[in-house]
Design a protein that fits this description.
The chain is α/β, with parallel strands linked by helices. The chain contains 11 helices and 17 strands. The protein has helices at 5-8, 20-33, 51-59, 69-77, 94-103, 113-126, 164-173, 194-212, 241-251, 266-269, 302-306, and strands at residues 15-18, 39-44, 63-66, 85-87, 107-110, 130-137, 159-160, 177-183, 219-221, 259-262, 273-284, 289-293, 312-314, 322-328, 337-345, 352-355, 376-378. The strands form 2 sheets. Strands 1, 11, 12, 13, 14, 15, 16 and 17 form an 8-stranded mixed β-sheet that branches. Strand 3 (63-66), helix 4 and strand 4 (85-87) form a beta-alpha-beta unit. The chain binds ligand LLP. Ligand LLP is lined by residues 44, 47, 65, 88, 148, 185, 188-189, 223-226, 263-267, 302, 361.
């Protein structure tokens, strides 16, 4: 990626830089590969809620996937049609449910029987009907980091298969509930498509089971989770959307009028974003050379939280001879490390570095730990 480095020199670091041209290209490719009247993409707003990033997604006509009342609010404020909003989350509060009902969202992705009862009661009290999908925990291993695996029996998400009949029956019986379908999300950063094929087979099995009971669904939602190439973002700036959508096209048996919904987050926005930071000090330790940068885990939490690695580049002086550094942040935590034994063109005080593939779960997971300022953003 080429960075407008002359522009960066005058900006206060750290900040997120978004390449909207790459974002538009990514959206267009996803839309091309999902070109099927039954397919509907709801962008997972948790990945990045920056209004500048949301604008091209809105222009593409996509819906939104939310996991909090404030996310629903952000979606509405950024011009997304309420009917295109789906709302998941294991712990929706009464206030959040009431707000979503008043906004007229398209669908609640319901994660438990007690939640279904509460949504029904709150909808009844308002004299409205809530459209819901039941989030099913299909017990499929996504083979990803254990913190971002969601579809196993041991995970807190969704309704387990043993209780599904009971919850479906209840949803059909409750007066203020319109059951539209089943929802799934097995995990995030999946680079192998096989778990998605397993998911399709599981959904086919479930649909057959319910058809046998005379129950059919208007919609199936398979969540998100398509991974990206963190190691070599320039080789794969746009994820393999074709392989992803084809898995569902080829393996999922959809009924004639059934709609298929997707909730893509990371794959849409990760590669267009970089965290730009400045080297504060180069410090020579006993066995190590540390590059201490002005971005920390408060700006980009993924390395500290998941041991994730974002490619680091010296964008000020890519031509200098390579040296070895541990690239660390300023925060008082030993996990505030972005890379160990990184081979980088020589760094000095003031050098700008880019932490790549940071467009997803970067800015949205930033905090004010150590009372630091939140990172800024430019496009
Ligand atoms: N749908 C549901 C119900 C989800 O929980 C998620 C993500 C998505 C869709 C979007 O998944 P994606 O396409 O972005 O993989 N903070 C972690 C990722 C957490 C994902 C949470 N759920 C990270 O930085 O890797």
């Amino acid at each position: 990626m080429k960075f407008p480095i002359d522009r960066f020199d005058s900006l206060k670091t750290p900040f997120y830089y978004y390449d909207l041209e790459l974002l538009r290209r990514t959206i267009a490719e996803a839309a091309r590969c999902a070109d099927d009247p039954r397919f509907h993409i709801h962008y997972a707003l948790k990945a990045n809620a920056n209004p500048l990033v949301l604008a091209p997604i809105r222009e593409a006509g996509w819906g939104i996937d939310c996991v909090s009342g404030n996310e629903v609010k952000a979606a509405v404020e950024n011009g997304f049609a309420p009917a295109s909003i789906v709302f998941a989350g294991v712990g929706k509060s009464d206030d959040e449910i009431n707000y979503a009902l008043s906004a007229g969202i398209g669908c609640f992705n319901v994660e438990s029987l007690p939640e279904l009862e509460v949504i029904s009661a709150l909808a009844s009290a308002r004299g409205v009907t809530a459209t819901v999908a039941l989030r099913v925990n299909p017990n499929i291993d996504a083979h990803t980091h254990r913190y971002i695996t969601t579809g196993l029996n041991e995970n807190k998400f969704g309704i387990d298969l043993r209780h599904l009949d009971e919850v479906v029956d209840r949803a059909l019986a409750l007066p203020a509930i319109a059951l539209s379908g089943l929802h799934f999300h097995i995990g995030s950063q999946l680079t192998d498509m096989e778990p998605y094929r397993m998911l399709c087979l599981k959904i086919n099995e479930l649909q057959e089971h319910f058809a046998g009971r005379g129950i059919t669904f208007d919609s199936i939602n398979v969540g998100g989770g398509l991974g990206i190439d963190y190691n070599d973002p320039d080789a794969h700036p746009v994820p393999d959307f074709k392989a992803y959508f084809d898995i569902f096209r080829d393996n999922l048996k959809l009924g004639d009028s059934q709609q298929l919904h997707f909730e893509l987050g990371r794959s849409v926005v990760a590669q267009c974003g970089s965290l730009i930071s400045r080297v504060l000090y180069v410090k020579h330790g006993v066995e190590k050379q540390f590059a201490i940068i002005d971005a920390g885990m408060s700006d980009l939490l993924r390395p500290a939280l998941y041991g994730a690695h974002h490619k680091i580049e010296n964008i000020s002086n890519p031509e200098l001879p390579v040296e070895t550094y541990d690239v660390v942040g300023p925060i008082c935590e030993s996990s505030d490390v972005f890379g160990t034994d990184e081979h980088l063109p020589r760094l000095q005080r003031g050098s700008l570095v880019a932490l790549r593939s940071a467009g997803a779960y970067g800015e949205t997971m930033a905090s004010r730990y150590n009372l630091r300022d939140l990172p800024g953003s430019v496009v």
